[in-house]
Amino acid sequence: KMTQQMRDLQLAQARKPPGPSSPNAAKRLYRNLSGKFRVNYTSFDEGSLAGRGEKEKLRKSYLFQSNAALFEAVELQDLDRVQELLKQYSPEELDLNTPNSEGLLPLDIAIMTNNAPIAKALLQAGAKESPHFVSLESRSLHLSTLVREAEQRVNELTAQVVNEAPNADCSEKEKQLKAWEWRYRLYKRMKAGFEHARVPDAPANVHLSVASSSSVQVTFCEPLSVNAAVVTKYKVEWSCSPTFSPPLGEAVIDKLQNLHFTIQGLVSGTAYYVQVSAYNMKGWGPPQASVPPFAIPSNWREYDGRAPRRRGQAEALDHLLSQVKTSHQHCVCHEPCKNQPQSRKHSVSKSLKHLFHPGSKFLKTLKRGLYLTAIFYKDDNILVTHEDQIPVVEIDDTYSCLLMQDFLWFTKVSCMWDEILWLRQCVTVSQSSCSCILQTRFKMLLAISQMQGLLGIQDLGQVFFEPIKDKQGNILIVTLKEVKTNQTFESVRWVPICKLQTSRKSVSSPEEPTALDMLLISVQDKLAYHQRSSHALSPGLYLGYLKLCSAVDQIRVLVPEKLPNILCHVKIRSNPNISREEWEWLQKMASVEEPVPAEPEAETSQNQLFQELQVAIKELMTLVNIPLQEAKDFRLYSQEVLDFGDQVSFLLLLPPSDDVCTAPGQNNPYTPRSGFLTLPLQIFELGEEG
């Protein structure tokens, strides 16, 4: 009966090739196909094909051959070739989960020959076990049938070779005999691998944590034992009872790229117990309870019922701005707006032609004054005018000492590039006061409008955190914007940065370079800063270090160069949520007068956080070059957890209160190593908001 089932299966799967006729035949197939696999089928001359149908046939032929080659690579235990094929083709193109004529999948062969590296590579690519093996008995019967039929075929061919006289047919029979002898040994090895296998041990390092007020997350590792067969899936179970009777739910995880699972839809304040078990071809192994044994969904805000700090703030600001606009819409200063188009209808490519118009008002050289420059870049190229100059417009030719307040006001305006016309008209009304500050800021708005008009682009990008000043009295405010579109603009000049730097003829001496020369010298650093300041942290809980230094007109904050929009930090863990129990423990720790509170009980989430904090503090002190013994005087900010969305949160580590902010002239004995910079606090706040 089993033989008949196998024959029926062979007919149903006729499109699948048989296995390699012999090891040598398989190697020959490898050699013949290896060159073809390295050439994409679309690289052939399409003119030589008889049409789309022929190309599709050619494509299917390559995919058919790649599937056969994958089976052979697994059977020959060629890990490099398996990895090459998995990288070159998608699982769909390889038919990774379609059984061959023997009812086997590549993963079945790897598992039953106990080839763990190949099996894990296949699992990472999304390979499954054959659906024919619904039980241990069916797998055992299937393997016995394969071994018996292969042995029978070997005996038949052996008799034919012995009884026939030497001729061409006999030579062909000998080849078939060798191929079937090899396949007989393969099936016997698979059968022995199955019979000697045992169920897997329990997963290792099963850790449970609170993910939110309605979810918990469990993470785990594969079993430590290497004697069992390869694990192909895991089962997560949860219950309100430590005996798991009754169980509340379970989930099977067969995508093994990341061994973690989040249990959603739980009740806040209820304890949930979790256990994880592993599965291989012999069945499910014993479950492993998590550490800690249970978790209670919660969030630190539940400790005192605190609402999120930023809830409704963006909406409130939008509403306030709308009210201000409404109150000004009937003002006489807005009458000209009726004749103004509400938005630029012309395309960017058309507007950028202004860059090359002889009548443009871009400047080539600087006089004593305040200027605005806009740097647009794409890859290693930078946008320049028709005279190969970075776009520069004048703000004020009588302003030789930029006040920090004016610069910080400019940075705030950069959050409203689309509202410049409206802001300019509002400031116009107030000019009667003859305030020097208002005059300067009105000129800034005029310069922004001029730059936007000449470029035909509203968004000028992000303001660099400090202006460039030279000894000639020039001050240059720099904006940066990356152009990511692949669109090619008509007549636009994109010049390689290195070419612009080498071709510019400096009009200043190396000892006293002008602001423009200083900009070109440092343009790569500014572009790198701009790119790094838009990077985001990966999800998790972080420990941040707050260190300020004050000057006459500003306060600056210490940040890492690699991520200047975030405080100096190290990662505590991947779970960003602080549970109510953890926050309650942190509050108690903050209220203890002794510098080192008692260690929490073992196998609790508080103890896990305690251990993680110890590691993070040591790492952070090393990062900012502070001796570890000084950390005994530091303290955790216990007023709140800083949440940045749902995926990133911060605990703050603060120096002693007298050392949080270094005053001018005050000696700081512990200066961080290279890799840090200080940003004006307002600039940092704008970057953090972004």
Automatic annotation (TrEMBL):
GO cellular component: spindle
Region Disordered, residue ranges: 1-25
Coiled-coil stretches: none
SUPFAM superfamilies: Ankyrin repeat, Fibronectin type III
UniProt domain Fibronectin type-III: residue ranges: 202-299
UniProt GO BP: establishment of mitotic spindle orientation; regulation of establishment of bipolar cell polarity
PROSITE patterns, alphabetized: FN3
Record-linked InterPro entries: ANKFN1, Ankyrin_rpt-contain_sf, FN3_dom, FN3_sf, Ig-like_fold
Signal peptide, first to last residue: none
PANTHER family: ANKYRIN REPEAT AND FIBRONECTIN TYPE-III DOMAIN-CONTAINING PROTEIN 1-LIKE, WIDE AWAKE
Name of the protein described by the UniProt record: ANKF1 protein
Organism encoding this protein: Piaya cayana
Annotated gene: Ankfn1
